[in-house]
Amino acid sequence: MNADSLSDNENAPEYKRIYQLYSNSLKSIPATILTSSILLVLLWTKVPWETILIWFSIVFSASLIRYHNVRQALATKSYLQKDHKDSMRQFIFGSSFTAAVWGASFLLFCLYTDEAYSLLMIWIASAIAMGGSLSLSPSKYAQKIFVCLIFIPAIVMNILSGNEFNITLGLLCIMFLAVLIILGNNFSNLVNDALNLENTNQELLLSLQQKNARLEESNLELTRTKEFLTQQTLSDPLTGIANRRSFDNTLIREWNRCLRRQHPLSCILIDVDHFKKYNDQFGHQMGDALLQEISNTISSQATRAEDLVARYGGEEFVVILSNASHDDAVMLAERTRKAITEKNFKHAEDSPFDKVTISAGVATMTPDNTLDCYDIVHKADEKLYEAKKSGRNRTC
Ligand SMILES: Nc1nc2c(ncn2[C@@H]2O[C@H](COP(=O)(O)OP(=O)(O)OP(=O)(O)O)[C@@H](O)[C@H]2O)c(=O)[nH]1
To answer: What residue ranges carry the coiled-coil annotation (predicted)?
Structure first.
């Protein structure tokens, strides 16, 4: 039996009813032993001692055996869970046997005692019947059998006695039994309603927990999708580096940061030389692959956490260097240009260069309120134009 089916059984209303019955009798059996001990003392001089001792031994041993069985069933639980009908049958048999012993006992004791003791016996029988009725309330069937078996022998004996006092006593017992059955029935309805309600509550709680778990899962999925979409909107699909939108955001942020701290901000614009010729000879796909290689090479050079490498558009790339001097930026641009040359990517035959090269324009500004953040990009663009005009494969 797996954990799920075990907990299903534990929550089943039928199991709860049986469990309640067993745990109630665990408390009522010691009360039975106590009552029989009191009766032993009370009747010691009225009933022959052999008879009372045999009676007490039967009640005491039967109670001990029942107590042991009930404890065992409650401790292992599996018996109660596996077969509801069988455990209910066993329980009803045990409680009916106890009631029959008590019913027969009262019959026996009335034979040896006077009217005052008969009244006492009926009073004790009523107390036991009431206690049993409450304890057996989860099962109407067990409840009715119990009270009937306690009272019917005494009722029959009293009515058949022909004695006026005993007939009255018998009739009173019938009335009390009827009241006990009606009240017991109502109480049983209440107990069973409460058990069913508890079960419904547990089912609702479980379904609420499951819905909550599903909601949390969807929420997580939504967060992941949001992160993925954010990533998609900020990265270039071909090269995987930051796209123009991400570059714009970073430029504004870093410009404002350098403005506050009065740090220099550098911008490098990089353009592949004669890329059209490369594309025309090797095809667009090879052109794409080359752009990916170039983007990787630039990223491998600008490695500070605050550096940003982005695709500016087409075959143009841009690097933002926060708090970097012009000399540092030129050095980085040169290092990148050389790294690409050293890759020895074969260029198109009609290109003036036998291998792929880049041109770079570097601009450095310390932001102030008279400037706009895009001024640095325009300046870098002018420098790039200068590099192109003065022969390409160079940094200006
Ligand atoms: N394969 C590929 N080609 C692109 C992409 N974006 C732009 N291009 C091509 O890049 C080429 C750019 O050509 P031009 O602007 O004339 O520049 P160039 O040939 O590099 O010449 P210079 O910049 O003056 O050295 C065009 O042929 C575009 O089609 C892209 O994503 N993939």
So the answer is: 194-232
